[in-house]
């Protein structure tokens, strides 16, 4: 028998182009192999600093994202009721005329009548700047719905944060704790890092109510009850303090442990730092028995004990307050064990392991360095304990303080930016808090005086009117949510519908699926989008929506602007936004069009698409509106398109969105005049740029003279002063004092108790609001319900991807077998899950990888029938479901948003539920079901790809 001929070294294609993946927020480098002008294969780019050639299922499935049947084809204008899916296709000139007409009227009348909110767009350096030029304060992106507790908790404490802006020291850590880490962010770098740890035998502890992904390979899983991570952290801190296993030398050198805090109860300076005439904070010098500047290097500072200042006031060091608070028996392992669901013995053991690793297994790198005060050090000692945390601790109404608690734990161990610990990624660390405050006033040209988002330093920076009422439609930067650095996307639609604090005219959204999974409660949100006033007009008059795909929200738009796929566009992964740096180097990247969308086949055979990248659309709209910075003096457009903007725009002299190959000849980095060939240089270099941090500057960045000077040259810092880690936050105390009646800016009466309670300068823990405000909670709603983002999908985008759908095309409600027995439920029974505002009926599945008082499901797999052009009986729309139907956007009392009181972060992990067995619904479909949307369908035939390429190759191989 003749053996088949095998090609043992097939060529992936006849052409390869490098760009940046957009299948999640990881932003890996990819090689796109083409054959006869079509994609044949996507592989990871081995030269890329993010993924070093590794590529996940999502990245490989980018082929099916590019060829998705759900792709939009032309601009559309609504002709039927919102939600009907009745549109007429229009040309781009008409679409832009309509948009410019609506927006032009607003800008003339009141720019704040535009609410511009974007989702997972990774273009905030442009969209935020555009909103500033338009003059609206009502701009935000996805972070308030997702991660602002993480960002604010870190930036107000360390000058950096977890998430994508810091990383464990993968090469040196010996003990890693993962707190609430899902698999959808930064996944390939984390997988590479975990591989290093497993190879070296380092220990990994996963703290999460559910054990999936990274937790599945952890050496130990701590199945914690949702919302109690802060208590667990405090119990560890309690034990470390009790055992005297803390790094006091580190705390004095790099943190404010020795700074004196005034104790003057009932007075305007109570809880503020004692300062000298120049404003410098003071410590108590034990050698001189007198106050001294806390940044002096020739003092022997006290860290405990009350002292009398020369003016008669009493003061204590910050560390004294820490010991006073966390040594309290309420934080002992025995006291918190039952609430956290963790045995007290386990808490004590982990505390001992942290101490042993940090203090008995220290490492020392033989690298000389000079600190910010000019002292030379022969080596870099390190505490090889690292931590990483994400949404699981962030998306709670106590998430801000939980994030701060984790940072406090790190600092007590001396484990921030030392060898073996958590490490900053450039452009972090930043001053604490970062210097950029949110824009408040409009200039003569109509633009805001600063970007709409920023960091509040005190009550004077809030966006409130003379009566203390919010100025923003989402209530961000108000007395209700003062430090809402990312805005509050989850409150926009309710407030716009209610006219609170005023009516808006136009809601413009980009890649924000607020009509489905990116809302707190889907049915309510749909109601607000479609509700009309007494005059018969929609309460939100105009909705402009830009997306590449026929998502659920498209049906509720008045004007639809079709975006490109990520292989048809330019994008900047900018150092001004969400860069791809790692701890050893600064980096940014671009996407560039592998294809011209006009050449790509449309979803319907024989058709082509007329789509444009939203960034270019935004720039053209800005020019049509005559926005400052987007037009020349004669009124002509300043930029041809987004690519032209990327090259020529300067945020400050010599500073643009891209840091590589600057200067007219491309010889400069970070700062320099625009280079007309800059994009070509990126493309030639694999679509990324990276600059190494000098070896002597890679650790102790907050106080390393080499790093501070390098960061200042690169434009990351405005000055080279050291950044002092803030165990105790004076910013928070300023708000507490305002609530107590001190200062020129004070909260209205209804907010005083709230601000005084939650703006504690030291981390606190409190019961999440939903649980605290429901009467008879253990009886009525005894279980927590949470979602996990799967490693193989990202938000709603990928549950329409033909290849990824083969991994999962529906979701289940997972519960522990013991939980099933407790409620009389068998594996694969249908169950009713009830919260304080609603109920869903879904199918249960037993899984032992969940804490028994918690149930969980995958997020965003469930789809509304008719959306995303899935076949009409697609399992995503039939058995799939959202937990969002059970989540309220306001607290049970109805007084505030269901959000963190400090930052406004959406608290969708606070959900409490009851479950009971149910009869299988008709047609075995989850409930509730919504009327199908009329957005087209792909038909019922399987969607395949590659047969023609294989056939052509086979024919071409024949002699």
UniProtKB/TrEMBL annotation:
All copies of the 4Fe-4S Mo/W bis-MGD-type domain together span: 14-70
Note the superkingdom of the native organism: Bacteria
UniProt KW Iron-sulfur keyword: yes
Q: Name one Pfam family in it.
A: Molybdopterin
- Assigned keywords, A-Z: 4Fe-4S, Iron, Iron-sulfur, Metal-binding, Oxidoreductase
Name its cellular compartments. Answer: Cell envelope
Matching entries from PANTHER family are given as: DMSO REDUCTASE CHAIN A, TUNGSTEN-CONTAINING FORMYLMETHANOFURAN DEHYDROGENASE 2 SUBUNIT B
- In which family does this protein belong, per the annotation? Belongs to the prokaryotic molybdopterin-containing oxidoreductase family.
From the Swiss-Prot or TrEMBL record, give the protein name: Molybdopterin oxidoreductase family protein
- Biological source species: Lysobacter korlensis
